[in-house]
Amino acid sequence: MVTLFIAAMAGCLCLMAELVHLKRIQKLSAMAFGPEGRARKWTQFVPLIRSVAVVAICWGLLILMNYQGDNQGENLLEQEIPKDKVEHVLIILDVSPSMYLKDAGLEGDIQRKVRAREVLESMMERIRKPYVKYSVVATFTDALPVIIDTSDNSVISNILDLPMDQAFTPGKTDLLKGIQKAFEIAKSWKANSCTCLLISDGDFTSEIGMPDAPPAIKEFLVAGVGSSQGLFIDGHQSRQDTLSLKRLAKRLRGNYQDVNQKHLSSQVLGDLAGESEQEAQSFTLREWALLSCFLGSFVLAFLPYCLVRFSIDHHAQRNKLRDLKVLGLEQK
């Protein structure tokens, strides 16, 4: 409301200045507009048009200056976040050597770990719910927590570039240890406040000893990367084991999705996306402010050209001047 009031005041000042300017140019109207001393009728609205453009620019700039998006990152102080509103996204990331194989993506020419990063970044961009905190657990032969409860998406993106497999003793992949470590972290969180995402190629050893999910886990997602044909590594053909990943998701009452060529769907993300498809297509306040600044600036920039070019009928004025000259010569 204050923003709109300030913009309206700026428009009123501009309109007052335009009216003062209009009175001054009336003395020179004959020189500016020819013998009739007036421009075309549409120019009467120029003061109002220019004032509205100033209001649009002022409002847009004030909105952009004070705008804060849904994801405010580390600008949200810890004590300001209501504990009952915090949502957790717990990522269990397979960092085994098979994730370096290049058989992922639309063309099948990028590493599985690179594809995993693309999927995670796409997911974070679409999560609109406020007060979301991310945690990452890396798993290979064992499981290690990498980061717990960060609100900064850039931190997660930078972590995904690290060679985390170097932190583990070489051996066979054990995803169950990653799930167990993630569930241990989630035990202290509020019930139904955590979405757990496991992203892997499914190339792991045992399915025995599945831990029970704590009350904090409201949804468990399994995302598979890697092609169905696979590539040779460590004495065997490594491919996306869709059957194992589907069984894993079913045992944890979760959902599985193949993300080797497609991203996680918004339906799978559920309420974390925070908005429906119709709402996603609508303009945000920031986009309206940008459009307002553009239109206001365009009008102010283009208006002088229109005044010079179309404010008077140059052809008619030349004819009248010619007639006046002829009349003056006849009188002489």
From TrEMBL:
Domain of life: Bacteria
Matches recorded under CDD domains: vWFA
Record InterPro entries: VWF_A (IPR002035), vWFA_dom_sf (IPR036465)
Keywords: Membrane, Transmembrane, Transmembrane helix
Domain VWFA span(s) in chain numbering: 89-202
Spans through the membrane: 46-67, 288-312
Protein name (database record): VWA domain-containing protein
